[in-house]
Amino acid sequence: MPNPGAAGPRLALTVGDPAGIGPEVVLRALASPDRPQASLTVYGPMASLLDRVARFGLRLPQDLGARVVDIAAQAPIKLGETSAAAGRVAAEAVLRATRDALAGRMDALVTAPLSKESLRAAGYRWPGHTE
């Protein structure tokens, strides 16, 4: 699962709430000249990443040396709106990245903000995603 040829630790980055600021935060962090020397894998919906690339003139994770694990939404997600679809995608991204970390495919997990309301709408009873 690590990026071929990348040095440093293997980091999983989840995009958080695909209807919120998480995808933009992740893309801006990837583009930062201060980002760590690491093998980076982004977990979340490619559709949300593509949306932020188009809205804000950002670059795709692949163009910045990161790999993407696409967690596709099963229903439309509208920017700025709480929804079960956004909650399911955010939770699945965290769960998938966590499984990869626990299996030894990632060395650490970094999470972007997510909506607790969307998690609850999707049926998750977690108080947040770090618990």
Descriptive tags:
131 residues, alpha/beta, disordered N terminus
Shape: globular
Please identify the structural class as seen in this structure.
alpha/beta
**Mean model confidence by pLDDT:** 91
User: How far apart are the termini?
Assistant: 25 Å
Rounded to an integer in angstroms, the radius of gyration calculated over CA atoms is 14 Å
How helical, in percent, are the residues? Answer: 25-40%
Low-confidence stretches: 1-5
Helix count equals 4
List the helices and strands in order: EHEHEHEH
Q: Strand-residue fraction?
A: 5-15%
The count of strands amounts to 4
Largest sheet geometry: 4 strands, parallel
Q: Biggest sheet, strands in spatial order?
A: 3-2-1-4
Give a structural overview.
With 131 residues, this protein is an alpha/beta fold. It has four helices and four strands. Strand 1, helix 1 and strand 2 (39-44) form a beta-alpha-beta unit. It has a four-stranded parallel sheet, sandwiched between helices. Residues 1-5 have low confidence and may be disordered. It has helices spanning 22-31, 46-56, 84-102, 116-121, and strands at 10-14, 39-44, 67-70, 108-111. The chain is 35% helix and 15% strand. The two termini are 25 Å apart.
